[in-house]
User: What shape does this take?
Amino acid sequence: MDSRQLRYFAAIYEEGTLSSAAETCRVAVSALSHHLANLEAEFGTQLFVRKPRGLSPTAAGERLYGHAKAILKAMSAAEKDIREAGDEVSGDISVGMAYSAVKAIGVDLCRRVVDEYPKVRLSLSESLSGSTLLHLMASEVDLALVYNPPADPRLRTQAVLEEQMVLVGTRQIIGESDAPVRFADIFNLPLILLRQGISARALMDDTNLLRKLEGRAKLQMNSVHAIGASLAAGLGCAIGTKLFMYEHIESGLLHYRPIVDPALSRTLYICEMADRPATFALETVRSLMVNLVRLAVTAGKWEARLVD
Assistant: This one.
C-alpha cells in the first residue's frame, strides 16, 4: 500500500463511482480499478460492494477511509511544512472549541491570526465538548479545546485551566439567595443536563457524581442553545459555569449559586492527536490559544484557575 493507492481509494469512497473518481484523479478508469483490486488483494478483504449505480463501502472500507483521511492529511501538512520552513508561518489549521471557549477566546484568536499570521488559514468550529473531541479523532480538526477528555494514548493533552461549576436557573427555581447550595439538595430540583455520553463528561471531573445527576435529570439535551432557552423559560436548572450563561446572568434573567459539599469543577485541555506531525503553523496556533486562555483568565474575562 502506498500514498497513491490511498489517494485513489479515498477518491472512490468520496465520489461513489469509478468514473467520477477517475475524473477527479485524472487517470483511466481501468487504472483505478486495477489499483483498487490490488488494494483489496493486499488486505484480503472487499472494500466496496459493486452496485448498478456505483460502489458502496463495506465495513472494512469505512475503517480504511478513516485511516486514509488522517494519513493523507498528515502527509500533505508535512510536505507543506517542510517546504515552507524557512518562510513566514503559513498553512491550514482547523481548531475545534467547546462553547465556553469560543465565547472567551474565539474572536481574539481569529483577530490575532489575521493580524499576525496572514498566511495562516484558520478554520474555527464550535460544538459541544464531546463532539469537538470526536472531530479531532476523525481528523476534522487539528487542535481542540475540550473539557475532561478521557485518558487515551492516541491523544496528546495539556491542561490549561480549571473552572468551578455553579447552579444556574431562574430565581423562582434555585432561590433568591446568593448562598451556596449543597450538592445533595440539587437532586430535589428539576435538573437539565447534557445528554448522556461523551458530551456529559464536560460537566465535571467526577464520573460517579455525574452518574447520580444523570439518574435524576428531568431533561437531557445535546444543545447548548436548547438548554439556555429552557433555563430562561423556567423549565429547570443546570450545572454549568458563569461564562456558560453569562449574558442571561448579567441581564438578571438567570441567577447562579455556588455548589458545595462537594464543590464541582472541570478542567479544560488543549488536545491534538499524538501520531500527527506538528507543523510550524500548528505550533504557532497552539501557543496562541494557550496565551489567549491565560490572558482571558488574568483579565477576569474567564473566571477560572490557570493550570501550570
The chain has three domains: 3-83, 91-162+267-306, 166-263. The longest helix spans residues 59-83.
